[in-house]
Amino acid sequence: MALEWAALGAMTAAEAIILILLTFPGTQGLQKGLITVARTSLQPLLAVVPFALFLLLEIYWKYEHLPECKGSTCNVAEQDRHSKSVFKSQRNGILVLGAFLFYWVLYRVTAMLVSLERISNQLKNLKPSE
């Protein structure tokens, strides 16, 4: 199970790195190459969506089938294990939501940069004709 979360974390980190490089000021010389890299990486990174949905369902299933540990019915070790399990589920849920958010933001920023590049090319073509 840890391998699945490591893979999701790596995909989310890749999305975040590409997003940071795209939005970092002063990279106008590399902008065209970065846009190409982002556009080509969007399709493989789309695999994060069904994968994250599956892991989100796994979190929900674990939460629904978590044994109750209240009062004097369980000892300290069981309470500790229960609280660690809840903490891990919350952490993994934040990772899943972060993966969705980073993919959506990367998609929108890439689309915006592509349209800006297209508009600037149209402006360049119009200026010499005047």
From TrEMBL:
It is a multi-pass membrane protein. It is found in: Endoplasmic reticulum membrane. The chain crosses the membrane at residues 6-24, 45-63, 94-116. InterPro entries: BAP29/BAP31. Keywords: Endoplasmic reticulum, ER-Golgi transport, Membrane, Protein transport, Transmembrane, Transmembrane helix, Transport. The keyword Magnesium does not apply. Belongs to the BCAP29/BCAP31 family. May play a role in anterograde transport of membrane proteins from the endoplasmic reticulum to the Golgi. This is Endoplasmic reticulum transmembrane protein. The lineage of its organism: Eukaryota, Viridiplantae, Streptophyta, Embryophyta, Bryophyta.
